Every structure is written in structure tokens, then in C-alpha cells.
Amino acid sequence: MKSQKLYSLCYLLFLLICPFAFSQDSLSTSVMTQQQAKITEGDGWVFYEYFTADTYGTKNALTGMAIIQPGKEIHPAHEHFEEEYLMLTQGSGVWTIEGKESDAKTGDILYAAPWDSHGIKNTGDQPLVFVVMKWQSKGVPEPQSK
């Protein structure tokens, strides 16, 4: 089961990283360290913003990592036109998806389709850490809101 999750995560990362290797007028293949990331701090959370430049196949991209303290959230459930993956790498909490709550556990991954309301709150007693990848595909029209 763990190897299947690891395989799935590696495959997802491969699909997201491939455009970097073939881009010509966009982000080139590179590594950004946590020390190089743009840091934003809020009430009980820190967000590390990594790559945001266009790639061969994406625009309006955001890659980052958040650390949220117990009882906190970065923001309430929200919606936007970009697609998004959010993977919980440490801690536990509550997912809110389209107004419905469910348990969030280490190893879970969320896919949010355009305009679907989604969010996460740390309801555990340890810091919650997630990695996020959000983007809009080039050549694909912006989806209409619901």
C-alpha cells in the first residue's frame, strides 16, 4: 500500500515536472531551496512560496509548502479557477470540500477542480504540513464559475 502511494506521488510529480524540461521561454529545470522560497507568515501559519513562473504547459502556477499550527488554518475554504493538488505530509486536520468536512491524515492528497470550494484546518495537536501545486494550463480557456 505504501509503495503504491509512493509510486502515485512520484508519477504525479513526474507529470508536473516534465513541462519544465521542455520549456524554452519559461522556467528552466532547477531546484529551489526552502531558504530561497518567499516566506509569508500569518496567525499560526507559515507559507513557503516556491516556483510561480510559467512553464511550457502552465501559467498562473503556484508551488509551495505550508506549516499550520494546531487550531489554525491559512484561510477558510475557498474557490478559484485554477486546478490544484494539495498533499498532507505531516499532521492531521479536517478537509472541507464543497461544504462537507472529512478527516485529513498524513499521506492524503486533495485534487480541487476549478471553482470547487476546498480548504484544510489543523485540528490535531501537532503542526500540519502540506505541499500545494496549483496552475492553469496554457491553451485551455478559463473555466466559468459555477
What does this structure look like?
The chain has one helix spanning 2-22, and strands spanning 38-42, 45-49, 58-68, 83-90, 92-97, 100-105, 109-112, 118-122, 128-137. The protein is mainly beta. Helices cover 14% and strands 41% of the residues. The model is unreliable at 19-24 (pLDDT under 50). The chain has one helix and nine strands. The protein has one domain (2-137): Jelly Rolls (Sandwich). A hairpin with an 8-residue loop joins strand 2 (45-49) and strand 3.
* Element order: H for helix, E for strand: HEEEEEEEEE
The side-by-side strand order for the widest beta sheet comes to 1-2-3-9-4-7
> How much of the residues is beta strand, in percent?
35-45%
CATH fold assignment: Jelly Rolls
Give the total of beta strands.
9
Instruction: Report low-confidence residues grouped into runs of 5 or more.
Output: 19-24
What is the CATH superfamily label? Jelly Rolls
Q: Helical residue percent? A: 10-25%
Oligomer: single chain
**Assigned CATH architecture:** Sandwich
Q: What is the count of distinct domains? A: 1
Structural class: mainly beta
* Gross morphology: globular
The major pleated sheet works out as: 6 strands, antiparallel
